[in-house]
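Memo to structure team: turn this sequence into structure tokens by end of day. - J.P.
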Amino acid sequence: MKKILVLIVIALFYGCSPITNQEENSDKDLEEVNSVKERFAKMEADALKEPYRCIFAENDSIGKLFPIRGTNVTTAPIIDAANLFLGSLNSEQLNRTTFDIKDQEWRKWCNVDNGIYDRQGVSLKEMDMSQKKSAFDLMQVSLSAKGLQLSKDIMKTDQTLKELNNGSNDYDEELYFFTIMGKPSITEPWGWQLDGHHLVINYFVLGDQVVMSPVFMGGEPIITTTGKYKGNTLFQDEQNLGLAFMESLSDEQQTVATISKTKTENINVAEANKDNLNLDYEGIPASNLTDQQKDKLLHLILQYISNMREGHQQVKMEEVTIHIDNTWFSWVGETTEEAVFYYRIHSPVVLIEFDHQRVVGVPNADDGKPSKNHIHTVVRTPNGNDYGKDLLRQHLESHQH
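Reply from structure team:
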């Protein structure tokens, strides 16, 4: 994107300059792009040098939060869809797409555009129609109807960014990459990952248990006003329900929940390369809320968890509800209708972030301030079970492999 903007400026102001000057500017811009790519690659490499520990709070008493158990919610349709997807790939694609269950590929994801991050696996763009159908079928049986539609709508925003940036190859509604870790099985651990700009889903399966985290979902523009997907709109419920919950708190409760009334920058703390984040609770604990307010908080949490397949979202919400009194809500920003803001929901078993971000991809729109037209959300499982790591650890300890 930066490259395109620089070239546009060159064309407008230096259109009559000798070709050698254009080439020099292009070389400088390419160096800048490569420098950004190198920075992201180093960030990931540094993060991967550290063995996975997990996101945790200092005062958490972890205990056995994630036991291996039956849920009575079948994963058979997910297993069947994964096998059909794998069966649709040719040998070269299969080699790029499949990894061991313990591979670091789980942790190799990033929400930035494809111009500055290289992804593993096979993309929708290089699949034929039958393969694409198999890929979306895997998503359909793994996610709820809401989660599938939201994923598709996020992909559409990348097509809009492509249009707004003169057809840049950094953006495309099909530049979303699939990988499979382990072999789809009813008894052995396995999972799949979708990795792309503003959409990352990690989906771990063990028996009839599912862990869907980390999940990154974002978008820009949030409301599309031009082009192929004019009218496409994202995250209005997450935004409005978050504000409504904050407004449901008393003045005193809002004061406790508020970290800062000033929102001037991007805040999300649990995005890519943050698997070992130390994050203490902030804001107001749900133990200080009324029963009605707790119900509203659970409803807000459900807005994110309900992207999972229906039966498994119920299992996760039961887990969340057990820890509701040790669930904390924090806020940054004002509470007016026009305000930009950040909020975080944090418990021993779930971490959710919502953040209004600075405009990046829409040309000539960045005024240095956060905007409602660029949103990032993150869902994590603290205390060791992102990527199903704790379930995998217990399984490997009790089985010889």
